[in-house]
Amino acid sequence: MARRRDLGGLIFIDLRDRYGKTQMVVHPEESPDVTAQAHQLHAEWVIEADGIVQERPQGMVNRDLPTGEIEVKLTALTVLNPCPALPFQLDEADKASEELRLKYRYLDLRRPEVQEVFMLRHRVAQVVREHFSGEGFLEIETPFMVKSTPEGARDYLVPSRIFPGHFYALPQSPQIYKQLLMVAGFDRYFQIVRCFRDEDLRSDRQPEFTQVDVEITFADREVIFGTAERLFVKILKHAWGIDIATPLPRLTYQHVMDTYGSDKPDLRFGLPFSNLTDCLRGTDFRIIASSIEEGGVVIGLCVKGQAGVSRKELGELENLARQCGLPGLLSLKLTAEGLAGSLSGKISEAQAAAVCKELKSETGDLLLMAVGKKSAVLKGLGVLRRLLAERFRLFDPNSHENPSLFWVVDFPLFERNEETGEVAASHHPFTGYLTEDEHLLESEPWNVRSTAYDLVMNGSELLSGSIRIHDSAQQAKIFQLLKISDEEAQLRFGFLLEALRYGAPPMGGMAIGLDRTIMCLTGGSIRDVIAFPKTNLAQSLVDGSPSEVDPQLLKDLHLVIQKPKS
Amino acid sequence: MARRRDLGGLIFIDLRDRYGKTQMVVHPEESPDVTAQAHQLHAEWVIEADGIVQERPQGMVNRDLPTGEIEVKLTALTVLNPCPALPFQLDEADKASEELRLKYRYLDLRRPEVQEVFMLRHRVAQVVREHFSGEGFLEIETPFMVKSTPEGARDYLVPSRIFPGHFYALPQSPQIYKQLLMVAGFDRYFQIVRCFRDEDLRSDRQPEFTQVDVEITFADREVIFGTAERLFVKILKHAWGIDIATPLPRLTYQHVMDTYGSDKPDLRFGLPFSNLTDCLRGTDFRIIASSIEEGGVVIGLCVKGQAGVSRKELGELENLARQCGLPGLLSLKLTAEGLAGSLSGKISEAQAAAVCKELKSETGDLLLMAVGKKSAVLKGLGVLRRLLAERFRLFDPNSHENPSLFWVVDFPLFERNEETGEVAASHHPFTGYLTEDEHLLESEPWNVRSTAYDLVMNGSELLSGSIRIHDSAQQAKIFQLLKISDEEAQLRFGFLLEALRYGAPPMGGMAIGLDRTIMCLTGGSIRDVIAFPKTNLAQSLVDGSPSEVDPQLLKDLHLVIQKPKS
């Protein structure tokens, strides 16, 4: 029962279920017993009601409700379960803390707009399964209790009771097992599957998340791209009713990093970067000159028509830039009265003209620039670019008309581990590389491009994949470059390496983040699209896990807890 | 490449993939280069082949192969990956140990008959999803890292890194979470989901297994039975091409236990039991007389037309009975020459006649009887009955014509824990009971019938479910009878009990064992229907899990291993 209203002697009861609301009406004179019962009812009680469906009286029709033309005249009423006052009001959920809503998640899930998310999620999962089944893929279940082969993130472990001191891991992905399925000759595999990562959580991550896992043998990138594009055409048609044109654009990693400072830029708005270093080389302006001397760069972007921002607003933008990790922000306002902004007067007219030309700017535009080490400037401006677009309303985040959807290709095969400075696999160590870059493996490993690819929508990476290495000699070479010894490789991946020796076909695949895809389709946070999500501390507030357990259980697992000294 | 044959100057190569085999042919005179390459090939190599599809010469057509009318004349050949000799021959897999086949599971999975199992499993999962989606159910994912609420079996635990000494459990089923979804107003839920139990394994159990989990609100048993029956009609039509009549028969627990000595009897053959105690009361025959004196029973069955078994065969049957836990087996052979068997001459003619009448036997039949405590005799005979049916070929295990498929209803609500003698929930503590038995809860708890039900096919329990308790007072009463204190109930299920207070609707549901269903459809063991199964010691031989892990990981989890003293 959503609510009860007593109006002019009549009692109106709104019943709510997954399909909407229906109005019941009780006439005190006709049904005094039912009336007496109805007076006891409160919101969120569960009732069984008998009655006669009838047209609403004229003037009482509610055109906003699918059931707004009828009402049910109650003839009998049974209370199936009462309900005390809720910890928060369903129609005022935004006033409740997220903590309270997560603790009473089953109440939060009663809200129609929240239920919509899970109905969409169900339908998208159906679209996914129909798509892959229709294209000849088999859904095959891979194990959840697997060998610990940590890569990237930390494994969640499961202690074995039968083998003391031995552990299973929860899979970070079914990567190795799907490759084994390819070796087994299942040429087209998919699975909607839970994955687990014990990492420090950011707001868009969850310790357990769901991915659509896909692998194909004897396939090049075109086959995989085609399969994915046909799927996203269906998903976007279904969820938003829009048609997207394929093939989707393909941008190189190098291009999107240089132009948008991100490997998953949102292209619903412009704001491309230009490297202004050459325009400003030789300036007297100290900040720029000293940075260029130290090998730094000047990178800028042009905000169309925003030359009118006030000094105060510019100050706010500079603060925003610092929050994005930039040391500062230089500005030029191209006003009708001439140049203004922090850089005006600091550089020569010729330099200013060169900058304007490079940024294709015209009177009325606002130019923003940052100075420093190239990778840091690109990264900071990449974050700032998104915030600028929101601030200046350069796109409508609620519009579904023209999503920004494209491939990023030619990722570097290796990246430097930020902590240790050592070479690490950008994707995972089974990722292939472009044949034409093979000669660079030893001499310029950072310049070797991999066969990895991402699909990016509205600034989110929805899909990631690669063509794998299927040759055990190539795989050994990569391990060598990653400084993974033969012994370590054997210990960690020995069973995969052995499988690759037994006639492994060429293979490639992808993993689509299902939670993130639903998030992208519905808006909101990742916690909104998971029925029982965990907090940033990986706690489940609805059931209170993790929790202490019966000491006998730990004894049976041959484990002793050693709490850190506080 | 499945195999290469050199025949009369020609080379024949069989290519194998998921869809079947195709024959390639190389003509040495026409393609000397390809011939030289082809001579290098061995079985299980992965090759890329170019060629011309042509009709096979007359007399070479193979009607047994879908591709038997054509062959591909090879024009080019590339070796994509070689393969050393396999650890076992694919067409002689039955000669390899199961251990070897599990270690090289990816090779075992190459066998066409094994691949068939996973293609069927994929299609059955599709049928399941289409069925439930079509009937308005939403597939909603429940968490895998949950609160430990052990019931029945032991939980697998996952240590928390962030909260030292705290643990998640892997779910034994999504029972509590699907009940929360019902409280949330998702009136029809299903999920194909992995579940986990850390129990000592029997041959038909796995530590991780898959179930089709279903829950419905405002539904009585009829709604749930209808949903399940419509599903099994589709599954059996799809897998075996047969039509089954619904509604399926419903047998009470009491009836199947008394008549077949099992709560999941196979009814593809007869062999019902009769209680012969009254027929034989007052006999001088010591074995029977003393047993009846002690409150025991005589229970027998009639094997039609098998009076001709030899003394030696009867001895074998007695051995079989002892393996089934029976102390012995008494027999009467109704031969044309008169009575024979171990009981002939030991009982009076009138008693023998009464036994024959009770068992509806006639000349030519073999009567087998066991004596002792009723529950033990029923249990032992229940196992023996199945073995007798196999031995006397009373049914064709490979026939799909008349499967034995029916409901078992009216299970007892409580059972005695075999170890402690204490009262325990037969199903789980949230199972409801028949209203008409409510008055027995305190006085005769063992006679209270629950709202639980099973679906049994060919002697396997494929589905189990119940109507739940949705009233928190009723639930408290059950906990009290189960000797679960308020404190313990709060600690273990507090969050569910609280949810039930907030307007929980009546609800019921079921869980279908997917592995066991596929097993029932394909024959074989549970390990045959799981891509990467575990052994009876819960080991995964393909990846070597569980395994030792980096000590740093354990340190981060605040755990120390305490190995048992050997």
Outline the biggest β-sheet of chain A.
8 strands, mixed
Strands in their spatial order, largest beta sheet of chain A: 6-9-10-22-21-20-17-11
Please tell me the CATH architecture of the largest domain in chain A by its name. 2-Layer Sandwich
Number of beta-strand segments of chain A: 23
CATH class of the largest domain in chain A: Alpha Beta
Q: What's the multimeric state?
A: homodimer
Provide the β-strand percentage band of chain A: 15-25%
Portion of residues within helices of chain A: 25-40%
Radius of gyration of chain A: 30 Å
Give the end-to-end Cα distance of chain A, rounded to a whole number of Å. 50 Å
Q: What is the CATH superfamily label of the largest domain in chain A?
A: Bira Bifunctional Protein, Domain 2
Largest interface pair: A-B, 112 and 112 residues
- The overall number of domains of chain A is 3
Mass-distribution shape of chain A: globular
> Could you say what the CATH topology of the largest domain in chain A is called?
BirA Bifunctional Protein, domain 2
Q: How many H/I helical runs of chain A? A: 16
Average of the residue pLDDT scores of chain A = 94
What structural category characterises the helix and strand content of chain A? Answer: alpha+beta
Low-pLDDT segments, ≥5 res of chain A: none
